[in-house]
Each structure stands twice: as structure tokens, then as C-alpha cells.
Design a protein that fits this description.
Rossmann fold; 8 helices; 12 strands; Arc Repressor Mutant, subunit A; 2 domains; alpha/beta
Length: 250
């Protein structure tokens, strides 16, 4: 198979099941990716901290340090590499907990290698598209005229991957940032969960809209003074979400 990319995307697989690792590694390398493997959470965390990867495929149940702890520590260390979490448990708590700690997506075992490859391609495609758009925009504009999105006390610089709330920088994962940009560019519009799932996660199939809800919750924690009474991201019951200019004096 001919590799489409000159510079291979680097993927870290952290899983202790040799059969799954072998299957994923074979399929991902066949698809043209540079694959690194770690068989336990501790070594996976160290490799993720010491090297730069384009995406991390992280199993939930791992020896030495479980996937939840690895994910948590990576985000605490400001490593915002996209994380695709794998879990053998059909347990909603584990899925949501992983997302709450900073995973971008999850898949439940058993799964087909093709599905994992497709999901990884979708995540990387979105990241690459954002980088390409940023590069093209920066080439066309001077430093002083780079695009700025401003809603209330939230300021977003899409081309610089920066966001601020009340003048202070906001730490966001790539998926949180992309979601915030998309909401901002559609300010005032009601967006359904399926619309957000399609636009931000780039799924060509029906996904779990809980992913959207958890990421919306993350954003509220970072840009809302009171998450119970959100001023920016409003829930439109029965429909979805809408980002709007805050009305602080209601």
C-alpha cells in the first residue's frame, strides 16, 4: 500500500493485550503510520511525556498505571495530544470518566481494526485540517490581522491555537478548542448534538452524543463563572446547544 503522507504520523499504542497490540500495529503500519508500543501504563506515560505523538491509543485497563490515571497525568502535564481510549467494559461510567479527564474519544472492545483505523484517520484529518487552515490564513494575513473571535470576555485566536477568558489563557485539548471555535463561528445558532458530532468529530456514522455533552461541560468549567447558570453556552432543551453573547445584568 502506498503511503500518502511523506512525514508519517506518529501513533502511540498503550495496551497490555499482545493480540490487540499486534493487530492494531499491523493495520496502522499498513495504513502508513509510525507506531510505537507500550505494554503498561507507566511506560506509556513516560513515552508520551518524552516524545511527541500525533495521537495516543490508550487502553483503560492496564498494569502498573491504568488508562484513567495516564490520561489524567498527561492532561495535568499539559500534553494535549488527542487520546482515543479503548475499554473492554461496556460501562457508561468508565467512558464518561475517561472523557471527563481529557480523552477525545473512546471505543469499546471488541472492535474491528478497520473501525479503529477509520476513527484515528478522522481525528488526525481534523487536526491536519485545522493546521492547514491556520497556515494558509497566517500566510495571507499579517501578524496584526490574524483572525480573532470575541464573545463577551472570551477571546479566541484560532490560527494560534490560543484562547483567553478574562485575559487569562485557557488550557484546552485540541478537541475542546475545535469545539469552542466551531461554536463561536456559529454564535447565536442552535446546534444539535448530531451536528456538533459531525462537524467537530467528523464522524461519517452515528456516534455517541454523550461525547458532545462531556466536552460542553469541560468548556463551561473553563469559560463560565457559574456552570449551573451558564452565560455563554446555553442548553436548548430537546435540541442542542447555542453559544451567545452573555447578558451579565439579567
Amino acid at each position: 500500500m502506498q503511503v500518502e503522507e511523506k512525514n508519517l504520523k506518529k501513533i502511540l499504542i498503550v495496551d497490555d493485550e499482545q493480540s490487540i497490540v499486534t493487530l492494531l500495529q499491523y493495520n496502522l503500519e499498513h495504513a502508513g503510520y509510525d507506531v510505537t508500543v507500550a505494554m503498561d501504563g507507566e511506560s506509556g506515560l513516560n513515552k508520551a511525556l518524552e516524545n511527541k505523538f500525533d495521537i495516543i491509543v490508550l487502553d483503560l485497563m492496564l498494569p502498573k498505571k491504568d488508562g484513567i490515571e495516564v490520561c489524567k497525568e498527561l492532561r495535568q502535564q499539559k500534553v494535549n495530544t488527542p487520546i482515543l481510549m479503548l475499554t473492554a467494559k461496556d460501562d457508561e461510567f468508565d467512558k464518561v470518566l475517561g472523557l471527563e479527564l481529557g480523552a477525545d474519544d473512546y471505543m469499546t472492545k471488541p472492535f474491528s481494526p478497520r473501525e479503529v483505523v477509520a476513527r484515528i484517520k478522522a481525528i488526525l484529518r481534523r487536526v491536519q485540517q485545522l493546521q492547514q487552515e491556520s497556515g494558509e490564513a497566517a500566510a495571507k494575513k499579517g501578524e496584526e490581522s490574524l483572525e480573532t473571535l470575541k464573545i463577551g470576555e472570551v477571546k479566541i485566536l484560532p490560527e494560534q491555537f490560543e484562547a483567553y477568558f478574562k485575559g487569562e489563557p485557557i488550557e484546552l485539548t485540541p478537541k475542546e478548542f475545535e469545539l469552542l471555535v466551531y461554536l463561536s463561528k456559529n454564535k447565536g445558532r442552535v446546534l444539535t448534538r448530531d451536528q456538533l458530532l459531525s462537524a467537530v468529530w467528523n464522524y461519517d456514522f452515528a456516534g455517541d452524543t454523550r461525547i458532545v455533552d462531556v466536552h460542553i461541560s469541560h468548556l463551561r468549567e473553563k469559560i463560565e463563572t457559574d456552570t449551573k447558570k451558564p452565560q455563554y453556552i446555553k442548553t436548548i432543551r430537546g435540541l442542542g446547544y447555542k453559544l451567545e453573547e452573555p447578558k451579565f445584568h439579567e
